[in-house]
């Protein structure tokens, strides 16, 4: 067992038995542990530094012993498959088995879900016959349909929803792999045993649950949107093992301030506007506040101030212009945006497709009941305004800095990187000096955290944000300090990023 630092709020455990270690720690998790992410050969342990120190957690993990989960009948899932996949004949040709033999070999094996990732409910199943092991497709498909059954490397799996994908498709199933209204929502969870059953005809898939009706009166109506307007709170917790990320406000500090200013709990749902450009119609009197990237604000032609609560009458329109600096602006209303919660959060996860859809003109959002009593007194501006120049942020090395040359970390922390235009809530794609690897080959998929600086073969780093994937297969050279995540969430295309090694925290590790 080897325990590696992964930022200031997570540890990555290299282990021969990640599923056994996960079983030993998951029920219940140790005090201070907020999430566990088993993967191919690692277990990511996220923790609250205010509740447990890295040293205490290291000691606990060092003494933990993997356990073999007790097999139960309900842990066996039989998945009916119609073997009609687009790649079935190609797989038969490349393996030399023939189509009937590919089907027989794939369907005769017993599989176990080793870990979840890529998308909510997507289980990586071990037990694939070595004769069927092929590398991923050279060119991933733009869209793989929900229910597609595929193989790649040593794994097989089922796509729970339509998404891009690079696996070889053998067939399809109509079994719902993911249902947020089900407990647990994922049909295939770490440790679940799986068998595939060939069928000639699939049962029809269950009908989707219709979206909730818009409120007949009251609420907040979106008249105009900027590039991206979503509902966000502070995110989802304790579902990472099922492939569900935290998501939530990219600049959680600004969102929490907006909620405090109007008397909400910090975790109430609000609006996140990317590059402003929104017009909102209030269909009832409301108390609101706007924080984050500073934008021109007008309410029925009257200027309003950022970082300060104000009241609008029923029928008022608020126009939010483009920010002068920063990227993301937050609009909180007293009572909070009251859309249905999904897995304990009202946040929109754009990568996973969870939560309310991205907002569009004509959307009407219900507003919750405000707390009784006057809003509490709040400091007007305890959050620094976003900067327009180069951003300087602190990183801790690891967990995979040993995959890079000795100069790579010095290059990262001594150079200027620029945010490119194809950045989003998933992560910032950066352009600058390439970071050279000392090792070749693929890293087995392992858990990721927000702030991870992942380096693909191009050497150009990607800095993960709120909607990052749960697992990834490119090495992470360093991880941002948690306190600097709000800073980086306001970085806009063309802005410079300068990384600095956090010597004090690095020494503590």
UniProtKB/TrEMBL annotation:
Keywords: ATP-binding, Hydrolase, Nucleotide-binding. InterPro entries: CT_A_B, CT_C_D, Cyclophilin-like_dom_sf, PxpC. The keyword Nucleotide-binding applies. SUPFAM superfamilies: Cyclophilin-like, PH0987 N-terminal domain-like. Residues 1-188, 241-509 form the Carboxyltransferase domain. PANTHER family: 5-OXOPROLINASE SUBUNIT C (PTHR43309). This is Allophanate hydrolase.
